[in-house]
């Protein structure tokens, strides 16, 4: 797991990332082994000259290639190249990945596609099993009914999802033909114990192909964040993407975060992955407690309306309308209070912090997340050294804290080679 943060002001952007990475190994069908290592690099300069950096979270590799390798290959390939706006960097980076068949050859893409479709099939079945377990009825007939309904529901969801760039209905038909043998085997292996009609088997093939041709995911296996300045950007910007895989020479990705600093919006705090302590810092209340309070209030209002319907049915309609109006006003006042008394004062201060103070705040928030995980969880999923960098228009990427896996004093040749590039 990971904790990362970007803090943007009009003068700079501070980035901080922990070093923990979780390695999972399936020991048996019912037992998983998890180990947390604390030496991962998640923060990199995207250019040696330009004020742009990237952070990665989620999977440490993409299609079997470490993100660190991909980023440094891109940096070497684009040495000396600059773009007018920050938004052009991710576009160029993803284009670089798509245009390197030696990195992701056809057989690797096809293997990844088959794996993605198999995972999607298990996901659909898992959702059906979950609904069956929570239902009151039991038996094979009931399970078959729920599996069929889940296939229909997933099909409705997939139909609403947008095609990834380069895919459409025609290419979907082509993909079904291309992977027909694999799709047939996958459906047989995963759903073979259940009675699935022929029309639904056909529907399942369309659903599974969507795993490699549509933006069906909210989150994905890997996240990558670009932050800094283009040559025409006066204030820092940030763009975050989620990447699912590269299929048919097209990278499935979706843009999630897009932050721009301006005179009207002079500061931003953007956490990634595990974000509880950052949200607590901003809101003045733990998000889990806030969620629980909202649940208690909703349950109390629901019970109140139920009692009114039973004891005074004539007043039920008016009381229900009044209680909903009260709840709506409460939510509005509560959000406004948090904003005025917690979030906005912090944002106002961030805009006037020095670069060193921005870096200190970013590191402190990551350390707070690490401390909480260390004392509240059996596995410390956030931890290790915190890498911190500050990016400004004039100075570029400046490292405040940066771990090395080697002793710099013993490797002066490395720095000599670096300066010669």
Description of the molecule:
By secondary structure, this protein is of the alpha+beta class. The chain folds into three domains: 3-103 and 220-275 and 358-367 and 378-420, Glutamine Phosphoribosylpyrophosphate, subunit 1, domain 1, CATH 3.60.20; 106-210, no CATH class; 276-350, no CATH class. Helix content is 49%, strand content 21%. It contains twelve helices and 14 strands. It has helices spanning 67-77, 88-98, 106-134, 140-160, 169-178, 180-191, 198-210, 276-283, 287-311, 316-350, 355-376, 412-420; strands at residues 3-8, 12-17, 21-28, 31-37, 43-45, 52-58, 61-62, 65-66, 222-228, 237-247, 250-260, 268-273, 387-392, 396-401. The strands form four sheets. The chain has a five-stranded antiparallel beta sheet, covered by helices on one side. Strands 5-6-9-10-11 form a five-stranded antiparallel beta sheet. Strands 3-4 form a two-stranded antiparallel sheet. Strand 1 (3-8) and strand 2 form a beta hairpin. Helix 3 crosses helix 4 (140-160), helix 3 packs parallel to helix 6 (180-191) and helix 3 crosses helix 7. The mean pLDDT is 90.
């Amino acid at each position: 797991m990971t904790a990362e943060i970007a803090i943007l002001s009009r003068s700079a952007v501070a980035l901080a990332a922990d070093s923990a990475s979780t390695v999972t190994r399936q020991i048996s069908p019912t037992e998983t082994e998890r180990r947390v290592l604390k030496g991962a690099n998640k923060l990199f300069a995207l250019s040696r000259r330009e004020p742009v950096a990237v952070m990665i979270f989620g999977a440490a590799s993409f299609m079997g290639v470490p993100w660190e390798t991909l980023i440094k290959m891109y940096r070497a390939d684009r040495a000396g190249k600059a773009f007018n706006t920050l938004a052009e960097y991710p576009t160029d980076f993803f284009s670089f990945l798509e245009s390197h068949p030696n990195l992701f050859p056809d057989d690797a893409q096809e293997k990844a596609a088959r794996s993605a479709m198999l995972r999607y099939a298990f996901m659909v079945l898992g959702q059906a099993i979950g609904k069956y377990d929570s239902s009151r009825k039991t038996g094979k007939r009931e399970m078959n009914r729920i599996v069929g309904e889940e296939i229909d529901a997933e099909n409705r969801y997939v139909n609403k999802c947008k095609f990834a760039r380069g895919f459409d209905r025609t290419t979907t038909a082509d993909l079904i033909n291309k992977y027909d043998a694999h799709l047939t085997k996958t459906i047989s292996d995963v759903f073979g114990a259940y009675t699935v009609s022929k029309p639904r088997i056909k529907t399942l093939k369309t659903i599974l192909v969507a795993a490699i041709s549509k933006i069906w995911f909210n989150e994905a296996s890997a996240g990558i964040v670009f932050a800094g300045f283009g040559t025409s950007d006066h204030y820092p910007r940030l763009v975050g993407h989620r990447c699912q895989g590269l299929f048919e020479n097209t990278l499935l990705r979706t843009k999630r975060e897009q932050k721009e600093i301006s005179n009207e919006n002079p500061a931003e705090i953007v956490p990634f992955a595990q974000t509880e302590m950052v949200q607590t810092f901003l809101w003045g209340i733990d998000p889990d407690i806030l969620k629980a309070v909202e649940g208690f209030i909703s349950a109390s209002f629901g019970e109140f309306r139920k009692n009114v319907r039973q004891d005074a049915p004539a007043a039920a309609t008016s009381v229900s309308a009044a209680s909903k109006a009260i709840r709506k006003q409460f939510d509005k006042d509560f959000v406004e209070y948090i904003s005025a008394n917690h979030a906005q004062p912090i944002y106002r201060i961030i805009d006037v912090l020095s670069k060193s103070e921005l870096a200190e705040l970013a590191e402190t928030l990551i350390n707070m997340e690490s401390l909480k995980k260390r004392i509240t969880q059996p596995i410390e999923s956030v931890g290790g050294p915190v890498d911190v960098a500050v990016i400004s228009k004039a100075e570029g990427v400046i490292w405040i804290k940066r771990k090395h896996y080697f002793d710099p004093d013993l490797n002066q040749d490395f720095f000599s080679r670096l300066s010669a590039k």
